[in-house]
Amino acid sequence: MIFCEEADTEETVTCLHMTFYHPCQDDKMMFRCLNFCEREQVRANEIATFGRDSTTCRYNFMDSRVSRIQFSLQFYRKLDTSEFCFEIKNMSKKTKLRVDHTELGYLNKMDLPWKCIICFGEYQILTEMQEGQSVDYYETYFHLAQMPLLQERCLPSLQPVPECGIFTSLSLSPDKSPKEIDENES
């Protein structure tokens, strides 16, 4: 029992999960320099840069249309809290960066929401932050998407909708057919 009392508590680590998609990935392999499905430790004081320049950027895209440094992520702790966050900064003079519905021009920066989609050109990157307590480092964990990340998030239609937009009574099952209800009925 004394051993358990004296053992160090295991510290959890903040992990940034990033899922990458580009429509030409199968042909051009622009993500071939990223390590997928492996957690990678990054020192907390290091700024993680993404772009095509392998001498400057920690994470490289093999695409001449990507800026030398496309964007950067900086890990930080909010003032007077124990909450950790990431700040994203657009480093491209040519391409705007979109974080969900916010557009960032050159050198614009903002806090990265805990879950969001980053877009530039035809690139789509879903980011999700898993919270931790470590102040020395964080981890990145990359995934590759086979399908576009930006799609309408509507439920699939159970019945095909005709072009005229009107269902015939035959297309609805008897228990699913519309019923007229008086507004005074309960």
From TrEMBL:
It comes from the Eukaryota. The keyword Transport does not apply. It is found in: Cytoplasm. CDD domains: FHA_TIFA (cd22714). One of its GO terms (biological process) is positive regulation of canonical NF-kappaB signal transduction. Residues 49-121 form the FHA domain. GO terms for cellular component: cytoplasm. InterPro entries: FHA_dom, SMAD_FHA_dom_sf, TIFA. Its main location: cytoplasm. Keywords: Cytoplasm, Immunity, Innate immunity. PANTHER family: TRAF-INTERACTING PROTEIN WITH FHA DOMAIN-CONTAINING PROTEIN A (PTHR31266:SF2), TRAF-INTERACTING PROTEIN WITH FHA DOMAIN-CONTAINING PROTEIN A FAMILY MEMBER (PTHR31266). Belongs to the TIFA family. This is TRAF-interacting protein with FHA domain-containing protein A.
